[in-house]
Amino acid sequence: MATDNIAISTLGHYAGLLAIELDPQRTDFTGTPPAPLGVAAASALAGHLAKDLNQILDGIEHLGLVLPGALYDQTEILQPGFPLITALADVYRGSLRGGFTPQLMALGADDGYFPVGAISPQCRPGSGPLLLLPFCFVGVADDLAHLARIMEDSLLQNGEVSLATREAMQQAFGLTALNMSFATIGDLCALLRVQLDGNGLLPLWELLEQAWFERPGVHSTILAGGNRFLVADDHAHTLFYTFDDWAQFGPGRGLSGVELGAGYRRWARLQRQYTMALEAYGLHVRWVLANPQLEETLAIVAGEAAQAAMREIPCLSGDYLVEAIFQNDSACPEQQMTITNHADVELGTLAYTVMSLDADGRLLRLEHHYPLRPQGLNVIIDRLIERCAEQETQRQVLHPGQLLYSENGRSLRAATAADLPAPAPTERMH
After folding, report:
1. What pTM, to 2 d.p., does this model score?
2. For residue 52, which of 86, 242, 283, 291 sits 20 to 30 Å off, Cα-Cα?
3. What distance in Å separates the CA atoms of residue 379 and residue 89, rounded to the nearest whole number?
4. What digits encode the pLDDT tens for the residues 193-216?
């Protein structure tokens, strides 16, 4: 029954989740979420979920309930401002005519897509064993406040899924669940916090929390490896160091020469972990190339002043960075190019050192090429191959299997024959 005296614009919303844990050991686990349901299948499944929630929450007939017939990876739910939840609530409000009408609304997909793009699941390969079906209650503020207290206090503990719902869910999506239970967004956040903390990544959780809940101000952290991250709104700012910069004026400046290799590998490992996670959870990561002046500034300022200092420098664009160490102005073509692949067993390629000579054996260029993103590796390789082809340059690729650097010069160096295991590959670049 419509309630005409309740303005649609005053309606609030509160979300929950059905968490489905899959067994990665099963042969039917693909790592890719199943395709979303059509309207009829979504409506049938919604009826089961609504019946369970009505019993668990002591009655929900006075509230609107909207849910999609789709499963999502947690990175799609946990985004700054929770846009997927907002989109569900907006769809419900948009369906109202004349006043608030408590009803169950199930959203189905047409050819795998919902009419509202923000609701369409990405169904990305590589998703983990935890999949989520979000639902959103819509109602007046007092009713939602009471509902929120019940959900946060007891939904996870008492939110047992009925056998009928469990079977309907598995049949609809064609999967076999190890566990299935209702939870809140807060429960999901708490679970992720425990997981990150257990892996020594609590600062990552704090950065994500700042963005998800749209907290004001700037949250910053400096990790044990010297990695620096600042988060404001849905943007993260971070410094990128080449090995030479890291060792000479950056976080590695206080280390002895023998410690530099392990120190930079630790920095690179944390940098990749944090940037990949921040981007996966919906933040725009802005990379800034470190320089001595900025380093001095950030040592004495924090918060918004640190953010302003980083924003004054143009961000790095593209998938890779070229650090030019030496360039001869000679017009002679490159006759010989030697490429050293600086790699780590865990991290893979960290950088390529490119040294090119002319026909007389004189050094023309010395460069270090750094991938900023995984796809940057192939971009570097393709460009170097193209460069050699254009000048008919002979190419040799050396794989010492480690990060090579001069301890005295505190800089990357090219490989020599003594650095190579036998036999050394010469054509494969990674």
Report:
1. 0.90
2. 86
3. 42
4. 999 999 999 999 999 999 999 999
